[in-house]
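Note to self: keep these together.
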Amino acid sequence: MIRPATPPAGGPPDGPGGTAADEPTPKVVTTRHPGRWAAALGVAVLLAMAVSALVTNPAWEWEVVGEYLFAPSVLRAVVFTLELTALGIVFGFLLGTVLALMRLSGNPLLNSVAWGYIALFRSVPLILQLLFWYNLALLYPRISFGVPFGPAFFDIGTMDLIGPVTAAALGLALHQAAYAAEIVRAGLLSVDHGQREAAAALGIPRSRQLFRIVLPQAMRSIVPTAGNEVIGLVKGTSVVYIMALPELFYQVQVIYNRNGRVIALLLVATVWYLVMTSVMSVAQHYVERYYGRGRA
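Structure:
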């Protein structure tokens, strides 16, 4: 005898005995991160303590900071700091590009000279390089111009040719060139070699290949690191204080040696360095975005 099949308890899902709507809706439970919230709370407490220490401690002398922040001598020092940075970066990257091309050259002499320059200037501290150029007259009192290993047409006193500002700009540029060379070389190597081969197959001259095809693509890799070097050089110009040049750090030293407000004047320098580097960071962001357009 055949018995009819017994329907499941609760009735069929879509039959007369029930519907799919009768099924309980799954509840979504978010993952909890108690450790993350505890870390955030700890950081918030530390930030609050730091702000309170800055605001409530009268030893910071914020009124003195406000008094000297826009003082004419400080503003002139900020401008001079930016000028030294511009000279070091422009001439440093021009020479660095030449050194990078020499490093990529198949000529062993050019390659070796560029490698030796980079190794030397990256090994010697910047402060020693600045002192060397500042005291170059001790080695060569006069500099001659003429035929190599031949007669000199005229000469000039080294102190007249290389003054303190020139020595500072020269030292910063030559030092920066060693790092710029490696930055540019890495950027050029990041471009696929097939780009050069395709350009050569079309008969494009090598100089046009470099400036119109290879270098624009290499800028995607060059700009981020070059931007960091620019920001680093803004702070690195403080080293020229040993040459008594009126850059920002030297100028605040002169002021606090006169009035004894050491912390307040150091804060003035800190604020201006922060402003300069922040503006350059924003500019770097837009330059990176410009050269990174079209990247997948």
